[in-house]
């Protein structure tokens, strides 16, 4: 065996010292979830600074020729027993006093203590070089290797910078109204105690408006507690933006809310603003819980949280393949829940996990930035069982605590960073909507599966919309692709209306002991609301060339292999404040949607003529402003949306009324050109842009991957100013026009047709019977999608299993009535 010193000298030119900006992966393998704590430790390439687990370092060496690696191993230290330990062997947890993670007073995040061993390893023989060995080597070798080792160990690892070590929900910004707040000289003076709402006499949750001194109650919470919204109504009537919560004022500050900015804020002039109404901030004492304390209480309260997490029973921990927990990276439970469900679906398993060796062999030089590699890594981590092991107990009293299902699990740091990169929400550490993330991930799969199998096809289905003009009874048919069924919640169909009304009456009377009653909504009522015809009051009929009334009916043009149903629990109140409906729905284990299959044009039914609304262009083809319903545009503007966005909403919904325009606005708020000026199809979209300008190759490839030809994709993009989302909508509403076009390049060719009959153009969708069985559901706890917690329940071998981040247990009482997203699979007949 060659001398170690000679070996190091031979590879010295490949050993680098990390510079600012270098990505150092010293906490996690790029191809697996191995870490320095794993068996075999972690090998960091001293040239590229990629981390490799013991099972992949030889493969990396063979592929790249790199020989020098820094081998890092960590072993967990035994915890010292504290004097205040509870009888179970665990120290008592302090009650959180701050809405934060990893900060004094916040929710506790245990920090493990480790002993670390670091040495250089030379491949292929894995010869080790310790710090003592380096001391005897030539200066040039010792200095270069020592600097590289020290640089790698001192650098912030990529996973460390991505992981949430601290999160503070109390960080507030200075209000833009604070410096120049207008205060009325109306002689109002506020006593130091005994406050009541001036409208309803409520004595809790009382706020004072800092402009006129009005003392009113706060908002009503989703569960019926809180106030009666009188402070909010006062702002809507007057526009006075800032209010302070009475009872939270101390010499250190108080809770100040800005209705205009819709957030808790700082008021640097609060002492002066309070003194205006006779309140001496320096003498005040706290008598009410702050909003932060209330939020913490909500996050710990018994009720929805306890039921969904099955906290009232001792759950049996499960370990093994397909039963791997995922660490919460700080508000990442939405991602954890969605990915746990997706990797129970055969399409995702076969695409990413079955081919993992091939995927890793074909991975680029930096696999941390490769979508396919990171999805395969996550899928294998969840399904292999390699990480589904109990957290080792460093204490002496093994088995003293009740089993809670805590696992070593996996931390999807690289995956989260990759799928969230560039996204305004998923790149942050804030809580997100699981349904929005599911669609975002499906969209990424679509973009990365333009060739080969596409697992997203498991969810893809076609929706047929039939609009019938009530004046002529002529119909119009359009189709669109979708991945999720959004199920409305008809609150007026609750079966316990009397209980709800009684609880509401007692609450309005100030009865603090009034129980919280959850509305019981039949699933059949939700399905009826989905399938019943919708009345369009401002429909422009091409048959009569005028606005009239129409009905719109929605049906399934195809049934997917796997059906996702979203319960529309999150809605907007009359004041456009987001709220969550606290409902229980008896969602069935089996579902038959056969009665909702689309039938297409009926025998003898006449179609509405294909005529555009009047006139968008003059006879000389000069582009004029579109004819828009000014009243609808005005209503949208009054809700706070940009003028150009409102004009586009009315235009793209064909002047069909406020409801359709509002729906378009809500679904396009994230478009990059949401507030850009309205550009008519086929006309210039800006300086230097012409209809013949080259279109986005990425947009073309995305549409072609859905089964359309390049010519059809080109036509759709040209008609919609090269905007992908609109092009997809356009192409599904013009399928009849596209049938006459030649199918080419990526679409179906004539040779693929049977009997000389070409299939109609459209996306590749699977179809079959509309009978399904429930196999998973994701539940949400909290007041809105932007806060709270997500948990997944998945049926494994006829046993319901709860996946609550790192806890994986056999479910005793799966709360199927409280779900948010439900996943069904087709039942083979």
Automatic annotation (TrEMBL):
<dbReference type="InterPro" id="IPR015940">
    <property type="entry name" value="UBA"/>
</dbReference>
<keyword id="KW-0833">Ubl conjugation pathway</keyword>
<comment type="similarity">
    <text>Belongs to the peptidase C19 family.</text>
</comment>
<feature type="region of interest" description="Disordered">
    <location>
        <begin position="743"/>
        <end position="766"/>
    </location>
</feature>
<dbReference type="InterPro" id="IPR050185">
    <property type="entry name" value="Ub_carboxyl-term_hydrolase"/>
</dbReference>
<dbReference type="InterPro" id="IPR041432">
    <property type="entry name" value="UBP13_Znf-UBP_var"/>
</dbReference>
<keyword id="KW-0479">Metal-binding</keyword>
<dbReference type="InterPro" id="IPR016652">
    <property type="entry name" value="Ubiquitinyl_hydrolase"/>
</dbReference>
<dbReference type="Pfam" id="PF17807">
    <property type="entry name" value="zf-UBP_var"/>
</dbReference>
<dbReference type="Pfam" id="PF02148">
    <property type="entry name" value="zf-UBP"/>
</dbReference>
<keyword id="KW-0862">Zinc</keyword>
<feature type="compositionally biased region" description="Low complexity">
    <location>
        <begin position="744"/>
        <end position="753"/>
    </location>
</feature>
<dbReference type="GO" id="GO:0004843">
    <property type="term" value="F:cysteine-type deubiquitinase activity"/>
</dbReference>
<dbReference type="InterPro" id="IPR013083">
    <property type="entry name" value="Znf_RING/FYVE/PHD"/>
</dbReference>
<dbReference type="GO" id="GO:0016579">
    <property type="term" value="P:protein deubiquitination"/>
</dbReference>
<dbReference type="InterPro" id="IPR018200">
    <property type="entry name" value="USP_CS"/>
</dbReference>
<dbReference type="InterPro" id="IPR038765">
    <property type="entry name" value="Papain-like_cys_pep_sf"/>
</dbReference>
<keyword id="KW-0788">Thiol protease</keyword>
<dbReference type="Pfam" id="PF00443">
    <property type="entry name" value="UCH"/>
</dbReference>
<feature type="binding site">
    <location>
        <position position="262"/>
    </location>
    <ligand>
        <name>substrate</name>
    </ligand>
</feature>
<keyword id="KW-0645">Protease</keyword>
<dbReference type="InterPro" id="IPR001394">
    <property type="entry name" value="Peptidase_C19_UCH"/>
</dbReference>
<feature type="binding site">
    <location>
        <position position="197"/>
    </location>
    <ligand>
        <name>Zn(2+)</name>
    </ligand>
</feature>
<dbReference type="InterPro" id="IPR028889">
    <property type="entry name" value="USP"/>
</dbReference>
<feature type="binding site">
    <location>
        <begin position="219"/>
        <end position="222"/>
    </location>
    <ligand>
        <name>substrate</name>
    </ligand>
</feature>
<feature type="region of interest" description="Disordered">
    <location>
        <begin position="494"/>
        <end position="516"/>
    </location>
</feature>
<protein>
    <recommendedName>
        <fullName>Ubiquitin carboxyl-terminal hydrolase</fullName>
        <ecNumber>3.4.19.12</ecNumber>
    </recommendedName>
</protein>
<dbReference type="InterPro" id="IPR001607">
    <property type="entry name" value="Znf_UBP"/>
</dbReference>
<feature type="domain" description="USP">
    <location>
        <begin position="324"/>
        <end position="827"/>
    </location>
</feature>
<keyword id="KW-0378">Hydrolase</keyword>
<feature type="binding site">
    <location>
        <position position="200"/>
    </location>
    <ligand>
        <name>Zn(2+)</name>
    </ligand>
</feature>
<dbReference type="InterPro" id="IPR009060">
    <property type="entry name" value="UBA-like_sf"/>
</dbReference>
<feature type="active site" description="Proton acceptor">
    <location>
        <position position="789"/>
    </location>
</feature>
<feature type="domain" description="UBA">
    <location>
        <begin position="627"/>
        <end position="668"/>
    </location>
</feature>
<feature type="domain" description="UBP-type">
    <location>
        <begin position="173"/>
        <end position="281"/>
    </location>
</feature>
<dbReference type="Pfam" id="PF00627">
    <property type="entry name" value="UBA"/>
</dbReference>
<feature type="binding site">
    <location>
        <position position="230"/>
    </location>
    <ligand>
        <name>Zn(2+)</name>
    </ligand>
</feature>
<feature type="binding site">
    <location>
        <position position="217"/>
    </location>
    <ligand>
        <name>Zn(2+)</name>
    </ligand>
</feature>
<feature type="region of interest" description="Disordered">
    <location>
        <begin position="75"/>
        <end position="98"/>
    </location>
</feature>
<feature type="domain" description="UBA">
    <location>
        <begin position="694"/>
        <end position="734"/>
    </location>
</feature>
<keyword id="KW-0677">Repeat</keyword>
<feature type="binding site">
    <location>
        <position position="257"/>
    </location>
    <ligand>
        <name>substrate</name>
    </ligand>
</feature>
